[in-house]
Amino acid sequence: MSPNTCWFCKIFRAEESRISSRVSLEEVLQWSQSFEKLITSKYGPVIYKTYLKTEHSDENLEFWLACEAYKKITSQRKRISVARKLFTSYIEPQAPSEINIDSPARKAIIRNIQEPTQSCFDEAQRIIYMHMERDSYPRFLQSKFYQKLKHSLQTNDD
After folding, report:
1. What is the tens place of the pLDDT at every residue in 33-54?
2. What is the domain extent for residue 66?
3. Model's pTM, two decimal places?
């Protein structure tokens, strides 16, 4: 498939030009220092998610970020509503964006979903974080996508 017809290529080019005009070389270089620096930086999650789409695993980052937002919810009523959405989107078997977690973590969430606490997704979030850090993050750093972005910014700084 030629780069002109490859829809992934088009997404990458559009995403890259939109973000590379805003992201700094310093930020991009920090991403290679640790996974934590990548996902807590300003543009890292957007770039990383674009990469994860190529691996069909962007649900991992979506879930992790959703859990970060979930922990900040103070209203019990809203927490129940969001917890159910997280459950139906990511946790239950055959969920549209089902994440890969072990059975004990899934069962604990099922037990706690009726009265969800601020921490009821912590174990699943930890597992997903480890999956990303160990598996897709090293591939991201080696990817043409990351290398090209880094190179284009290094070239612009010269």
Report:
1. 999 999 999 999 999 999 999 9
2. 9-151
3. 0.84
Q: What pLDDT is stored for residue 135 in this prediction?
A: 96
* Alpha carbon distances (Å) from 31 to 24, 42, 44, 105, 131: 11, 11, 7, 29, 17
CA distance 44 to 77: 32
Q: What CATH number corresponds to the domain at position 43?
A: 1.10.167.10
Q: Amino acid identity of 36?
A: E
* Residue 4 scores a pLDDT above 50: no
- Is 99 a member of any domain? yes
In one letter, which amino acid is 158? D
Q: What are phi and psi of 108, to 5 degrees?
A: -65, -40
Q: Is 67 part of a structural domain of the chain?
A: yes
Q: How far is CA 120 from CA 44, 67, 92, 135, 143, in A?
A: 26, 10, 14, 24, 34
So what's the pLDDT on residue 158?
58
Four-CA torsion 28, 32, 37, 38, nearest 10 degrees: 60
Q: What tokens does 15 get?
A: 């995403």
Q: Based on the structure, what is the number of domains in the chain?
A: 1
